[in-house]
Task: structure prediction
Amino acid sequence: MYVVCWGICFYPQMLTNFKRKSVQGLSFDFLLHNATGFLFYAIYTATLYYNPTIQATSSSPVPVRINDVAFALHALFCVVLLTLQVMCYERGNQSVTPMGLIANLVVWAGALIFMIAAAVKRVPWLSFITYLGLVKMGFTALKYLPQMTLNCQRKSTAGWSIGGVFADFFGGFFSVGQMALRFHETGKLSELTGNVPKLGLALISIGCNIVFLTQHFILFPNHDAKAQNLSLPSIEQTINQKAKDDKPSL
Result:
């Protein structure tokens, strides 16, 4: 069930962008963190599922299943589609922030270092794969912060699909439920602790989406048509307005 919820959570945002022919209100840092995170997570899940050699180096069974692999690959595909929308639709003055770019460069540099170290047998390949999974978990927490900040700056959630938020929330809820159910059936603690990134993704998603629901329904409840085009003024607009204000009247 969690795969279905997390799988469809991307489509309400795509539909919102398509209807508005605009991506204003969608944080580009959020999208960039998603791209890196899901690429790393796809490699993490696929490797642990399909590579018995790396599986054998783990001290405990890693409960990665085919639905985890399918979810990661599908999510990566959806992020690519969202990126294409950013390239095609109106985006106003929005762009990736320097901090967002630096964060991605740092984790990519770390991945390159781990990969080289594994290739020369300084560390096991499992360490490299685990690093990718932990980056995804960390980026899941990090990626929501720019979107929360953008909503606060605009004092609106217009352009940010609440349908996707609900799907993401229930995806996390059902993911934790699945792991808890398997732990109850097998009695193996590894069903909960064996896949730390998956558990972390679920718990972080639940917490952060509660914040988004609070923003949408309590803090910034104005979602009318006028608010749909609300965006922060660009620097050029600000300068032009100041020039008009400073222009002496005859």
